[in-house]
Each structure stands twice: as structure tokens, then as C-alpha cells.
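Predict the 3D structure for this chain.
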Amino acid sequence: MTKRAPSCIMHLFQAEAARFSPTRITFCAGHGILITRKVCALAGGFSRQFLFGKFLGGVSTIAAELLINEEIRDREVRVIGADGAQMGVLPIKRALELAEEAGLDLVKIVPTAQPPVCKLMDYDKHRFEQATREREMRKTQKVVSIKEVQLSATIEENDVAIKAKNAVKFLQGGDKVKVSIRFRGRQIAHSDIGLKVMQDFAERTKDVSTVERRPMIEGRNMIMILAPKAEKASKAERSQKAQQKPEA
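Done. Predicted structure below.
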């Protein structure tokens, strides 16, 4: 059963939440508690990670958390302005004052440096932009899966034609194809027959595939990997690219 925060801390959260702008507040769904970053210092110096894990059942924030504002316990930090300008090594109290004056957060970006490096930034905006970049990267990433086609050393023509057709469909969809033959009994002594079956299969799919891994024996199996063939640009596309090249 999830533990709830003590009532004193809950009231403290709610009271302090009203003092800060919405951009500096994180809402914990399911608990009805508004948590401000500055409340953590007022709540006995506990960090957000402790309060989330201890009282709110492990509710986590959007991205990997960096220490910010009052969570930073170092006496001195090297400060970088919002515009990237070096502001030198400052006492933590002065660095927090600068952040407050600018309406920004003091974020520890290089905790292992001596002294640690902190930057003035809008941390909520930074996390939002980071999450947006990660989503865009996931959209552009092409997921390649491996489909398997099982043959046999004594496969019939009709069966191999059907399996080759399926393999072509997989390859045209951008997937790799693992072609395998399981040798039974004494068939392993005549692996050359299986090799011919593999070579014939590769020939049937050569228009859309390249042999990424030649047929090899693994135990009682022979395995070959086919990869989608890279599409070649048409003559018209090559001519268009040549025209677009700047003249020397």
C-alpha cells in the first residue's frame, strides 16, 4: 500500500505552491499534491527524490534529475550564465541569489568538477526540450527485426518457392531474414546438399537482398543471414543530383 506524506508536509507543499509561478511547480497525479522545488529545503532539507520515493510510492519525474537550487549543497560553485558567459567561482548563496534575480534555476550540470559547474537556466523548459528531442529521435530511428525462414535439406520446389516469396516480403519491409536448415539424423554428413539449398534460396531473393552472413554450420543447423539490398538511385535521380552539385 502506497504511503502518503505526513499532513504537515502536505500542507507545507500546498502553501508554498501558491507562492511560485506554474513553471516552477510539478503536479503529482494521483496524490493531489503540488510540490515546489523550494519546498524541499523547507521540508527538513530532503531532496525531491527522497520525498517522492519515501512518501509518494516512488513517483518519478519526467527525465533524469539534476540537482537544482537549494538541493545543491556545495559551498562554492563555478557559475555559467544563461547566455553561456563565465561568471566565475561564487559562494552558493550568491549563485542562488543571481538565479532568483534572473527568474531562473541554478542547475548543477557537472557535479564531478572541482568546484562543481552550475548553469543558470529555465530547468522546466530544458526538460521539456530534452523530452521533445528524445521523442523525435525515436520517431526517426528505424527498427530492424530479424524474421526466420526454416528450410530443409529435402525441401520440395513448391515449398521453397513459397518460403522465398515470404522472405522477399520481409526484406521489402526492411527486415533481415535468418534462413536455417535443421539436419536430421545422417543428413549432417551431407551438408553440401543443404549448402546448395541455401545458395538456391539466396539466388531466388537476390533482387531484394544481399548475403550478410554466408551459410555456416552451427551444431546440427546451417544458418544464413540475408539483409535488405540498399535501394539504388534511378538514372533520373543521379542526373538531378549531378546538376545540383556546385560547379568548381
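Confidence is low (pLDDT under 50) at residues 1-5, 12-63.
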